[in-house]
# Entry
Amino acid sequence: MKKFLSILLSASMLMSFAACGAPAEDGKGSNDGSSGKEDKVYKIGICQLVTHDALDAATKGFQDALKEKLGDKVEFDVQNASGEATNCTTITSKFVSDKVDLIMANATDALAAASQATDKIPIVATSITDYATALDIKDWTGKTGYNITGTADLAPLAEQAAMIKELVPNAKTVGVLYCSAEKNSKYQADVITDELKNLGIETKIYTFVDTNDVTPVTQQIVNDKCDAVFVPTDNTAASNAEAINNVLEPAKMPVIAGEAGICSKCGIATLSISYYDIGYKAGEMAYEILVNGKDPAEMDIEYAKDLTKQYVKERAEAIGVAIPEGYEPIG
# Structure
């Protein structure tokens, strides 16, 4: 009997050792007690509204940050909506069906579509001017309270108004040109109108619907003899900046732009942020969510830390605007 019990005990011990050494069926277990999380490949869907320099740089910064932290443990499905909000809806809905681990929404329409597509999958956005406006949040605290966080591209509008006054000191009327379909552009227009009013400058609002009416609407600014033009961070304007320049530069009308990409194609100066940097920061935030379990609802929206006064030398000279010290050339 004792011999039988000894054999039975030995067999039980061998089975226990075998079980401890075997991998878990779900692939997450190991014999060193780790969870296997280091073996996971994270799938991230990126929805970018349209192709232009600023958004391209933000997407690259986002990818670079995650590649540096995760190496080959991250896969990106990068989709471009070609400037169409309906395409953003199709793209983000497919990301949800594909069960991606996180959605990156690059620009306001992409964020709006992603937020409608899921309230479960984490969303990290970038190139958003004002999250409260984009998500229709009434009591803004700096956090969304939803499955959403990210980075903003807003340079202080009071400082941009001061730049207009500095560069065009005799300006009486500034035309504000933007796409009516972009909520964040309207937000910027409203704020800078107030800021310019404080400086004794009147504004006139000029909105276009899409690419087809950019040129005639811009021509109206010339016809109205505005003294300068402000173009906010607006994706449709960015995609049509050369068409804007074709009207305004020959009329020697100075444009102050909300970001460097627009400025390089139609402006004389901008108070610029780095879209690569805000994209990179968004990538770091995504890492915190994916790997360290941060809750996007409780993460503060992050803003650009460094602002730079930039100018386009040739265009400023052609229009006849003297650029004071403290500005860096674009390019």
